[in-house]
Amino acid sequence: MARPVIGLTTTLRPDGATAQLAGIRRTYIQAVLDAGGLPVLVPPAPEEVLRAVLDRLDGLLLPGGVDIAPAEFGEQPHPKLGQVEPERDRLELPLCRWALAEGKPVLGICRGIQVMNVAAGGTLYQDIPAQYATQIVHAADTSLPRGYIAHDILSQPTSQLAVHVGGGSLHVNSWHHQAVKDLGAGFVVSARAPDGLIEGIEMPRHRFAIGVQFHPEDLYQADERIRRLFVGFVAACK
After folding, report:
1. 224 falls in which pLDDT band (50, 70, 90)?
2. Which of 126, 127, 131, 101 is nearest to 116 (CA)?
3. How many CA atoms lie within 13 A of 6 on its CB side?
4. Which of 187, 181, 182, 212 minimizes the C-alpha distance to 202?
5. What is the DSSP letter of 116?
6. How far is CA 71 from the centre of its chain?
7. For the chain, which has fewer Cβ within 10 Å, the N-terminal or C-terminal residue?
8. What angle do CA 209, 214, 220 make, to 5 degrees?
């Protein structure tokens, strides 16, 4: 059976004084490959080009990255706002809106869950330590291994997320200082951290529209439950 074609949006990085690289961490690509998908990198492009690209995709994966510009959800920048990448916002938000409207499978990871929420009209905590009372460190020290387990999350037993990873607690990594605040239209909460912070959202009436705040691409090789999230996503794209 042919592998479904899955678009992975890219981030921009400087390459010398005048050029930029459009790329993504290889772990995302490998996770899609190992689950049976055919990953295709999608760089920033004019909207009409993005529309044509999405028409050729069977699914969309929105990976982690820098902060979303607060103007995209109607707020002024908080003093603790991190780096933003407007070109990436212009890449991902239209793709996500179209995919959600058309029932095309979407998996959002870290920044990706935030893109999904903002695309549907939701808002974000721009900085968790400044705007949300918690004792949990959600932005783990970057010197730690990517698979470092920071805390547990609890998935809702009736959620689509639980269908894939099972109900109850799941051990996850954590590399974010922003999070979903007000839910976008059509989304429900599928998982929370012990402090109540949203760690998973989904659209119940959608074939597959799941966002997670942790990084499953760094955990799936060691955790069968998390591997099933990628397998389920790729299966929904077929």
Report:
1. very high
2. 101
3. 32
4. 187
5. H
6. 19
7. N
8. 85
β-bridge mates for residue 125, sequence order:
179
β partners of residue 4: none
pLDDT 10s digits, 128-180 = 999 999 999 999 999 999 999 999 999 999 999 999 999 999 999 999 999 99
Amino acid at 110: C
Give the span between the Cα atoms of 44 and 64, in whole angstroms: 16
Provide the annotated active-site residues. 110, 215, 217
| The 59-62 sheet, strands edge to edge | 38-42, 5-9, 59-62, 106-109, 209-212, 198-202, 188-192, 151-155, 168-172
Amino acid, single-letter form, for residue 77: P
Nearest residue to 120 via CA among 98, 105, 104: 98
The rounded distance, in Å, linking the Cα atoms of 114 and 200 is 10
β-bridge partners, 151: 172
Report domain 5-237's class.
alpha beta
Q: Which amino acid is at 199?
A: E
Which two structure tokens, joined as six digits, stand for 10?
A: 């890219």
Write down the pTM of the prediction.
0.97
